[in-house]
Design goal:
Layout: E1 12-13, E2 29-32, E3 41-44, E4 52-53, E5 55-56, E6 63-64, E7 68-69, E8 113-117, H1 119-122, H2 127-138, H3 147-161, E9 163-165, E10 168-170, E11 184-188
Parallel strand pairs: 1-4
Antiparallel strand pairs: 2-3, 5-6, 6-7, 8-11, 9-10
C-alpha cells in the first residue's frame, strides 16, 4: 500500500491509527504507525488521514479494506471493495499449511474420519471438542450405518452455532456462538464392516 498507493484508489490510507479519525480532529495530534515502525508515534491529523484504514478492526474481526478477512488469500481474484473499482487481490498473499497423510500406510476402522470445516467451526470449537463430538455421535450408530457421518457433521454445525438467547447465539459454555458460516464435511477413512 505504501509502495503502490494507486492501488488504494484514493479512498484508503496505509497508516494505522488507534481508532477511526473523525473530521473534527483535523489539526490535532494522534498516535499512528506504518509497516516500518515497531511502535507508535504522534502526527498532526491531515485530510488524507480521514481516509478509511487499509485494515479495519482487530483480531478475527479485522477486514482488509472493510471487505474481506485479512487471512483470506485463496481465490477472490476479481473481488473489489464494495461500491468501488478497487481490486483487493494485490493486498492478499497465501502461504497455506499443507500436511500429507498417506492413507495406504495405515489400516482404518469405520470410526476413523477426517473432519474438514470452515472457520465458522474452528473459531469456536477446538480439536479436542471436535474429537469428542465425533466419538459421541459415532458410538450412537451402528458401524455400517452411512448416515452416522452426516449426523456428526450436523452435530458439529449445531454445537458451533449455539442456541439463540437474549444476548445472541450462545454455546453451551455461554460463550458466543460462531457468527461466521459453518460448513463441515466428515469423511470416513475406513470402509464399513468389521474393526481390524
Amino acid at each position: 500500500a505504501l509502495l503502490r498507493p494507486e492501488l488504494l484508489g484514493k479512498e484508503f490510507t496505509h497508516l494505522e491509527f488507534p481508532r477511526r479519525i473523525q473530521p473534527k480532529e483535523l489539526g490535532k495530534k494522534m498516535l499512528y504507525r506504518d509497516q516500518n515502525m515497531n511502535g507508535w508515534a504522534y502526527k498532526k491529523i491531515e485530510e488524507d488521514d480521514l481516509k478509511f484504514p487499509l485494515i479495519y478492526g482487530e483480531g478475527k474481526k479485522a477486514r482488509m479494506m472493510a471487505t474481506i478477512g485479512v487471512t483470506r488469500g485463496l481465490g477472490d481474484h476479481d473481488l473489489k471493495v464494495f461500491s468501488s473499482n478497487i481490486h483487493i487481490k494485490p493486498f492478499l498473499s497465501c502461504f497455506p499449511e499443507v500436511r500429507v497423510y498417506d492413507l495406504t500406510q495405515y489400516e482404518h476402522c469405520p470410526d476413523d474420519v477426517l473432519v474438514l470445516g470452515t472457520d465458522g467451526l474452528w473459531d469456536v470449537t477446538n480439536d479436542k471438542e471436535v474429537a469428542g463430538v465425533v466419538m459421541e455421535v459415532l458410538t450412537s450408530y451402528e458401524p455400517n450405518d452411512p448416515c452416522r457421518y452426516t449426523m456428526v457433521a450436523q452435530e458439529l454445525v449445531v454445537r458451533s452455532r449455539g442456541v439463540l438467547k437474549e444476548r445472541g447465539w450462545r454455546l453451551a459454555n455461554d460463550k458466543l456462538g460462531s457468527g461466521d458460516d459453518i460448513s463441515v464435511f466428515v469423511i470416513p477413512l475406513g470402509g464399513p464392516g468389521n474393526y481390524t
